[in-house]
Every structure is written in C-alpha cells, then in structure tokens.
Amino acid sequence: MKKKLYYLAGLPRTGNTLLGSILNQNPKIKVSPNSLLCELVWRIYSIKDSKLFLNIPDHKTVDNLITKMFEHYYDNTDAEFIFERGPWGIPKNLEILKKYFEPNPKFLILNRPIVEVLASFLRVKKAGDNQQIVKNLMDDKTGKLKQDIISARNIVKTEQSFLKIEYNDLVNDIKKTIEEIYKFFDLPKFEHKYTNLEQLSYNNVAYDDSIMEFDLHTIRTNKIEKINLNLEDYFNKEVLEKLKDYNIYE
Q1: I need a surface site. Which of 69, 70, 83, 208 has the fewest CB within 10 A?
Q2: Which residues contact 106 (CB under 8 A, 6 or more apart)?
C-alpha cells in the first residue's frame, strides 16, 4: 500500500494525544506517537560531518540509506495516511525532509499559549523544582519544548503549507476541528466518536510514561473538555507578566 505522510509538528501539551486517539479510529489514518524517524534520519545525515565519511565521501550511498528510511519506516503500519509527529520544521530537518522525501510537505500545528503549555507540564510532573523544569524545557539546545517552538515558528515563517489548530478549538468544538483537518488534508470521510475514547496506541504499542519525568499521554476517555489551570498556582506575577505575551511565531 502506498502511504501518504503528513507532519504533526506543533507544541506538546496541546492535544496531540487526544487528536491521535480520535483520528486513529479511522482505519485509513494513523497518527504516530513521538516518532523516532526524524532523529534517526538526522543521525545518519550527521555522519557526513565525520572524518570517516570525509575520508571517502560517498554521498550516494548515504543518501540512498536516508531515502530508504523515509520509504520504509512505516512498512508495518497498516494505513494509507500517516501523520508523522516530530520537529520537522527545525531548519535543517526541513531541508533534509524536502531534499530526500517530500519537496512540498504539509504540516499540522497544534497551538496553545506558552504559559498554558508550561503550566500543563508542571501539573503532570512527578517531581522537581518548577523553575528548573521550565528552564530545562526551554533550553535553547536541549529543551524539548524549545525545539518544538523553533520547529513550529520556522514552518510559519517560511510559509510552508500548514494548518494551525488552537487548543481551545480542539477541546471546545472537536467535531468542527476534525472536519477542518479532514478538509485541509483531503482525508477519506469517517464518522468519529467523541466519547468512550481509547488511550492512544500505535501498532498495538502504548506509551510507557513510567520512564518519563511527566505523566504526559493519558487522556480522559469519557468526555472532551479543557482542564482549566490556575496559572498563579505555577508562576509568580513577574513570570506571568513575562510569559503572557510570548508569541512563538515571532
């Protein structure tokens, strides 16, 4: 089966797991969990900077391997349309994606005010100091959240083909939001259910958050609604003032 890949490249804590659980009801669609494909491709591509490669720079062999990784990563996924979740908008990742696989990729970005994203992380933390957790998430080189911000920002600034969905719209009018996604990505119609949901799994494998610092991927199955966060429980007034106007797209 020939598969069509789209790219889920927005922020964490914006409804990615919920969206995946719903879209995956359609047997022709699969939303991946946090994918390893981007990291695997990057590691192979980075070999080109090594002395071992530069000693005999056989670009065609390495390029062929990268292309095949794109072609075969989803061989065991039984779906026609796949939303591949990863930071593909980071400039170098986007360059690699366009060069080796998809010159005109289409992106789905889930968006939420950054102060709510950070508060949501802190709500599901297992331990640790709030200030240090925020610092780690926003670290320019290693922060998971900062990398996703860079990715989403670059997709928008370079005017890629993208659909941006606001978290509030996702949880407050899920049916309309799903219809909007179907229209933009030209997906085969399907009658989804929005109650009695299942936890997200992929190829019969579920997230194991026991190894993580946060309980990130458990959704409520009985109903869809926003969890209202009292931001003052997580940040002092000075930090709130600094974060309230933070625009990730500038």
Answers
A1: 208
A2: 6, 7, 160, 161, 162, 163, 184, 185
Looking at this protein, which amino acid is placed at residue 165?
I
Distances (CA, A) of 232 to 32, 116, 235, 238: 34, 11, 5, 11
Number of H helices, E strands in the chain: 11, 7
pTM value > 0.85:
yes
| Residue whose token pair is 């699969």 | 30
| Contact present, 74 and 106 (Cβ < 8 Å) | no
Would you state the CATH architecture of domain 4-35+73-114+144-228? 3-Layer(aba) Sandwich (3.40)
**Which element (helix H / strand E) includes 34?**
strand 29-34
Q: What is the pLDDT of residue 15?
A: 95
Exposed/middle/buried for residue 219 (C-beta within 10 Å: 0-12, 13-18, 19+): middle
Check if the beta carbon of residue 11 is closer than 8 Å to that of residue 117. yes
**Nearest CA to 172 among 115, 222, 219, 223?**
223
Average pLDDT over residues 179-185: 98
Return phi, psi of residue 135, to 5°. -60, -45
**pLDDT tens-digit readout, 77-107:** 999 999 999 999 999 999 999 999 999 999 9
Q: How far apart are CA 126 and CA 6, in angstroms?
A: 33
Cα separation, 20 vs 6, whole angstroms: 13
Q: Do residues 201 and 208 touch, judged by C-beta distance below 8 A?
A: no
For the stretch 41-69, pLDDT in tens is 999 999 999 999 999 999 999 999 999 99
**Maximum distance among all Cα pairs of the chain, rounded to whole angstroms:** 59
Q: How far apart are CA 74 and CA 105, in angstroms?
A: 17
